[in-house]
Write a structure and sequence with these properties.
Elements lengths: L6 H9 L9 H12 L2 H5 L1 H8 L3 H25 L5 H9 L2 H35 L9 H4 L10 H16 L5 H22 L15 H12 L7 H4 L8 H31 L17 H7 L13 H8 L3 H35 L18 H17 L2 H29 L12 H17 L3 H25 L24
Helix pairs in contact: 2-13, 4-11, 5-11, 5-13, 5-18, 5-19, 6-7, 6-18, 7-9, 7-16, 7-17, 7-18, 7-20, 9-16, 9-17, 10-13, 10-16, 13-15, 15-16, 16-17, 18-19, 18-20
Length: 504
């Protein structure tokens, strides 16, 4: 179970399909911004307000710093192993099959559960948008949220998840031009929010700055981390980058820096113009974001606090007398977020596809549709699972579940870089991360720290999820592994794999 996939075999296969190096620092930076900005800032601002209050601004900085340290590790490995499979493949070539399996299994939380979270976030914006139309359309509360929010099922979230799954089975995916337009829509929407909210800031809304103390700020950073995932869209473009030694760090640091500045400006606008203090229970107790207890307290407010909103940024704009722009921002979120769901489900199915081609999962999962030429079996399994999670769980809880798997994956990748530096120091590295013996340990420490500040449900879910994965591995993957059976072919490059997770 400690057997490794031959890095030489992977690289030999990669050389047969060399891509044209055409990406410069500007293209890489835009790719990173498009990958990062999404659900985190549009939806989780309310979650951060409930956990940290105005201190969420520090939370964005902490999460961004951990992401930046991990980004260097991803960039070095992506330049050395420019094939599909993301952190699963990196780990397989360095730490062995068992760790690769655990990372691949954890990626289910990063991809599929994140897709559920984005589906719920999209639903919240659409429900708010419909309610503020000239002729309002009201979605019954029973169909607008799951049981944890006092409803029965989040019907719109299920709808969008199944629509995206159907498109993926048929073979529809976004083109570079469509993606560029949608990135522009997201940026214009956030720019409009900053433009209108910052001038009406009141410094009194920043006090108290940390109502729940340092632990609240770090807890919010653990949740907000969801908003930074997607930067590895830059690192996985290493093979297509001109002068990767120079341009990769520029693209990574520039995109993360720009996104952090945007996040801080949006957070400052929301806090300063409207306020972001947590909502407490009747006896002063701290209420969990997305819980029924918080929902019950929120329903009693005439003017809904930021921590209660399912469409935080649009709600702030409506509250500061810009209802039209608030509705347009809600529409922008409604247009742009489904592409994030598409990329997350797409990424999940391709990870499963690669694991199946490696023999670690049943071969049926890599079965391709005779007409559409897509892995339809695994796509439907993933899509139904995504819809199920979106139907019954709140967005914050789903994001925290997703973060538990993502933090594990990032930590293992950071460890892999250090191991490879020690075991194969002379191997060619198109991008050699600077100060790796500082950045990689900081990434590992940051990931571990943020994990322990996740809610107890997410911390409890991860070992249970890992144990289930180990049962699957020893019941099937250990005996059917292609590497274990001496099959050394490297089929990932034929799998139409994704360029990397586009979450945020």
């Amino acid at each position: 179970m400690w057997r490794v996939k031959s890095l030489d075999a992977v690289l030999a296969t990669a050389e047969k399909k060399t891509l044209r190096r055409s990406l410069g620092p500007v293209q890489l930076t835009m790719l990173g911004i498009g990958g990062v900005i999404g659900t985190g800032i549009f939806v989780l601002t309310a979650e951060a307000a409930q956990k940290a209050g105005p201190g969420m601004m520090l939370s964005f900085i902490i999460a961004g710093a951990v992401s930046a340290c991990a980004a260097f590790c991803y960039a070095e490995l992506a330049s050395m192993v420019p094939v599909s499979g993301s952190s699963y493949t990196y780990t397989y070539t360095v730490l062995g099959e068992l760790m690769a399996w655990l990372v691949g299994w954890a990626l289910v939380l990063e991809y599929a559960v994140a897709a559920s979270a984005v589906s719920v976030g999209w639903s919240g914006y659409i429900v708010g948008l419909l309610a503020h139309l000239p002729t309002p359309i009201t979605i019954p509360p029973e169909l607008a949220g799951g049981p944890f929010q006092g409803g029965v099922i989040n019907l719109l979230a299920v709808f969008i998840a199944l629509v995206i799954t159907t498109l993926l089975v048929i073979g529809t995916r976004e083109s570079a031009n469509v993606n560029a337009v949608l990135v522009a829509i997201k940026l214009v929407a956030l720019a409009a929010f900053i433009w209108l909210a910052l001038p009406v800031m009141q410094m009194t809304n920043f006090h108290p700055f940390a109502p729940l103390g340092t632990s609240g700020i770090i807890s919010a950073a653990a949740s907000i981390f969801f908003g930074y995932v997607g930067f590895d869209a830059v690192s996985t473009a290493a093979e297509e980058t001109r002068d990767p030694q120079r341009n990769l760090p520029i693209g990574l640091i520039a995109s993360l820096s720009i996104c952090t500045v945007i996040y801080l400006a949006v957070a400052a606008g929301a806090i300063g113009s409207y306020g972001a203090q947590p909502v407490f229970g009747a006896h002063g107790e701290i209420l969990e974001p997305g819980s029924m207890a918080l929902g019950k307290v929120c329903s009693a407010f005439v003017s809904e606090p930021l921590a209660c909103s399912h469409e935080a940024l649009a709600h702030v704009l409506r509250s500061i007398h810009h209802p039209l722009v608030g509705n347009l921002l809600g529409m922008a979120a409604g247009i742009a977020l489904p592409t994030v769901i598409l990329m997350m489900i797409f990424g999940q199915t391709r990870i499963f596809f690669v694991m199946s081609r490696d023999g670690l999962l049943p071969e049926v999962l890599s079965r391709v549709h005779p007409k559409f030429r897509t892995p339809h079996v695994v796509t439907w399994i993933t899509g139904v699972a995504v819809a199920f999670g979106a139907a019954f769980l709140p967005v914050g809880q789903l994001a925290d579940f997703s973060n538990s798997g993502t933090l594990f994956g990032f930590g293992v990748v950071s460890l892999s870089v250090l191991v490879l530096r020690r075991t194969q120091p002379s191997r060619h590295r198109p991008f050699r991360a600077p100060l790796i013996w500082m950045f990689a340990p900081l990434a590992i420490i940051g990931c571990v720290t943020l994990f322990f500040f996740l809610p107890w449900q997410a911390k409890a879910l991860f070992p249970v999820w890992t144990a289930i994965g180990l049962v699957f591995y020893f019941a099937y993957g250990y005996r059917h592994s292609h590497v274990g059976r001496g099959l050394t072919e490297v089929p990932e490059l034929d799998s139409d794999a994704p360029p990397g997770p586009i979450a945020g």
